[in-house]
Amino acid sequence: MNAKVNISNRAGASFPVRRMNFDFDQVPEYWMSGSAGLTHFMTALSALFPDGEKLFIDSVRAVRHHPAIKDNEALQKEISAFIGQEAMHTQEHVGFNQSAQKYGHDVTTLEKRTAKLIQFTRKNFARVVKPFGMTQEMVDLTATTALEHFTATIASELLRNPHIQELMTDDTMSYMWFWHAVEENEHKAVAYDVYEGIFGRGIKAYALRNSALVVAMVLIFLAQSSFVFRLLKEDGKLNLKELGMIYKYGYSPSKGIIAGMVGEMLAYLKPGFHPNDLDTVQLLKDWKAKLGL
């Protein structure tokens, strides 16, 4: 594992901010089990992260001094640590993406398309719900709450699924993804607690967060899938063999990472749901020990 780890918990939150510094220089082109399809699947997912995590940081930071939560000292500490962790995720995924770019895979264009998609969606969704008294800040925070559930769910599936773990054959990349997965579950409730603290559990808040989840999942599926096809086509690897590996890795009912997420994703739609209802305490304890965090 080529990374230096410095841990800071000056915010006094229930989870620390780990200062990572991964060295991606020695990562092979097809780092995931030697497969172009699997590698590009993860690269396409990573292309969503820098601007996605910027949205998470900006949306929570924009409302942290709202009267409903500004005096909640415990939550304010969690927000500070949340921002710190997400900033590190952004930094390392930029490095991850650059490592693919150096092999001639145009991830920069995918990042730009992600940024445009986020801005187009957030502004137009805000226009649709404005007549119902919902502001841009509310829309942004709602999107973050939904997307944080997605990232925590895919992260916990990664940490539980030995088939997926076995395919991550490069030490640097596997450690980076496992570290990211641990932290997504450490802070999985922060955006939700901010959202609920400000907007409550009423019908409007419930309907908006569920609508945001549906829209977000459709857009993520379309964007990530189109990125995978683009990367494979430009690489001359768009063939049945690689597509079959992607299907088995992502969507196979028995082993697929996406298929394994369905139950926890649907849990979000329940009235009264809270991220901590999905217990990952022991899972995180085991993985933090394994990773030396």
Structure in words:
The chain is mainly alpha-helical and 293 residues long. The chain has helices spanning 36-46, 49-63, 73-101, 107-129, 136-160, 162-167, 171-186, 190-199, 203-234, 240-250, 262-267, 281-291; strands at 3-8, 17-22. Strands 1-2 form a two-stranded antiparallel ribbon. Strand 1 and strand 2 form a beta hairpin. The longest helix is centred in the last third of the chain and has 32 residues, at 203-234. It is globular, with a radius of gyration of 19 Å.
Q: What's the pLDDT, averaged over the residues?
A: 92
Q: Describe the strand arrangement of the main beta sheet, using strand numbers.
A: 1-2
Helical fraction: 55-70%
**What's the order of the H and E elements?**
EEHHHHHHHHHHHH
From the N-terminal CA to the C-terminal CA, the straight-line distance is: 13 Å
Low-confidence stretches: none
Q: Given the C-alpha coordinates, what overall shape results? A: globular
Given helix and strand content, the structural type is mainly alpha
- Total E-strand runs: 2
Strand content: under 5%
- Provide a count of the helices: 12
Largest sheet: 2 strands, antiparallel
